[in-house]
Design a protein that fits this description.
Blueprint: E1 11-14, H1 18-29, E2 34-38, E3 51-52, H2 54-63, E4 73-82, E5 85-97, H3 100-113, E6 117-120, E7 125-128, E8 134-136, E9 142-143, E10 147-150, E11 170-178, H4 181-187, E12 190-196, E13 199-205, E14 211-218, H5 219-224, H6 229-239, H7 241-246, E15 251-252, E16 257-260, E17 278-280, H8 295-311, H9 316-341, H10 344-356, H11 359-367
Parallel strand pairs: 1-2, 1-10, 2-6, 4-12, 10-17
Antiparallel strand pairs: 3-5, 4-5, 7-8, 8-9, 11-14, 11-15, 11-16, 12-13, 13-14
Length: 394
């Protein structure tokens, strides 16, 4: 039996996370055939600070997601912490905290309701990107889509690896915790950034009263702590007074997840050798340091912008040029801030500046966000009503 082919004009999306699922929503709402592959069979936690900025909220408005209705925790202030010193400042917007486990599933369900076909527990493999795209599935079905939206997050698809520089020697961890009632009350409405000798940690509430602890530490420190999450956490509790207080009496609400060698600062640079039908979304397009908390916004912006430009007939090259222009300055500024926050002298300078000029925290937040002027897709009007889909396979 010959392999089944995807019908001409169909779009395949690799990855059902924030970027992939959001793009599927926009394309399916416009009546376009969409086939999305997500390697996880069910809800899963992702390495993410789970902070939703005002820019991300505008993208969710376009997709039709009501964050408050999902129980997202409202955040209006930031605390910068170094040892026993704490500086608090108001954010230039009201943000939200919401877990990726919940959010990604909501987006996938919405995409399916709009007409997208979702394949769970399956990963695709690139066979050919020179000339017509050719993709293989675990079931042996061959796909020949006109367009591929690459939304595999920090994990590269074989044959389409990012041209990223060697990343720094840091390990990222994320875990959800149930804090003691007094600590929930103390954390409410804030995102806390705790600067460590060789990295930083972020702590905030998400839905259901859970707290997200997300941190970046050097591989050297992890090895000193025995090479395990439990050892690293114990080390942090012994050396960081603020975390010792916040996490006193806390219990785990799930298994920690980790990632290594993330190419922070990467921004895809369009080249004439790029495959014409491949749109890079989210971390496949650009990776912002987690210290600034705008990774979700970039993922959403890339998804909605790519879908809108594709619907308007623009090429992948045009999208990549536009997206690079939107985020390059932001990511460079965030990278500079990240380097300051992870150096000894830089941490002290940052704390002194924040204490003397609290409005500087608001300015830093603005400078490391997706520019509102970049989100012109909100002026294109609401998505069209879903149209009947004849199916993907011929």
């Amino acid at each position: 039996m010959s392999p089944t082919m995807i019908v001409a004009g169909g779009t395949v999306i690799a990855g059902g996370g924030l970027a992939g699922a959001s793009a599927a929503c926009v394309l399916a709402a416009a009546g376009r055939p969409v086939l999305l592959f997500e390697r996880h069979r069910g809800p899963t936690d992702k390495i993410c600070g789970e902070f939703i900025s005002a820019e991300a909220q505008r993208s969710f408005d376009r997709i039709g997601i009501d964050l408050a209705a999902l129980g997202a925790h409202r955040i209006t202030a930031v605390r910068l912490v170094h040892r026993n010193e704490v500086v608090t400042g108001a954010l230039p917007f009201a943000g939200y905290g919401l877990s990726r486990r919940l959010l990604d599933e909501v987006l996938l369900c919405r995409a399916a309701a709009l007409g997208a076909e979702i394949r769970r527990g399956e990963s695709i493999r690139l066979r050919q990107n020179c000339g017509p795209l050719m993709l293989d599935t675990p079931s042996g079905v061959e796909l020949r889509p006109k367009t591929l939206f690459l939304a595999t997050g920090k994990h590269d698809l074989r044959g389409l690896r990012r041209n990223a520089k060697t990343p720094d020697d840091h390990v990222g961890f994320k875990v959800h915790l149930r804090l003691a009632p007094a600590q929930i009350a103390g954390l409410a409405g804030h995102v806390e950034l705790i600067m460590l000798p060789d990295g930083y940690a972020g702590l905030q509430l998400v839905e259901g009263g859970l707290a997200n602890l997300c941190l970046l530490a050097s591989n050297k420190r992890l090895r000193r702590a025995g090479g395990t999450w439990e050892g690293l956490l114990e080390d942090l509790l012994q050396t960081e007074p603020h975390l010792h207080t916040r996490l006193g009496g806390a219990t785990s609400a799930g298994k920690p997840v980790s990632i290594f060698r993330v190419p922070y600062g990467f921004v895809h640079k369009p080249a004439h050798t790029d495959a014409p039908g491949i749109f890079r979304l989210g971390d496949q397009m650009g990776v912002i340091p987690s210290f600034t908390g705008d990774g979700m916004s970039i993922a959403l912006h890339s998804a909605v912008l790519a879908a809108d430009l594709h619907l308007a007939g623009s090429t992948a090259a045009e999208y990549h040029r536009r997206m690079r222009g939107d985020i390059l300055g932001q990511i460079r500024r965030a990278r500079a801030l990240d380097r300051i926050a992870t150096s000894g002298a830089g941490r002290l300078l940052l704390m002194r500046l924040a204490a003397a000029w609290p409005a500087g925290l608001r300015l830093a937040a603005r400078l490391t966000r997706v520019p509102p002027s970049a989100q012109i897709y909100h002026r294109l009007g609401p998505p069209a009503s879903p149209k009947p889909d004849a199916g993907y396979f011929a």
